Please model this.
Amino acid sequence: MASINSTHIMTKVEAIKALMKDNGGVASWKFIYDNIERYYPAAKSSPEWEAGIRGVLYREIKNKQHFKRVGFGVFALA
Model:
């Protein structure tokens, strides 16, 4: 069985998944924005970091991968 390298850096998708999992499987935009750095430390390094997070989430929803919209500005693990 392979072990996870302790220096593994999460992708944005992995970070959003972990954030949601730790929050009972759901998260609002505010919760994602307020907590993303705990999982993806470089998340806010770009001036347009919020758009980058939205783009990842919307892409994954469009491709029916990992996430789904469950309310206005509220998302859950698929």
In short: The first helix runs from residue 12 to 22. Residues 54 and 62 are 12 Å apart (CA to CA).
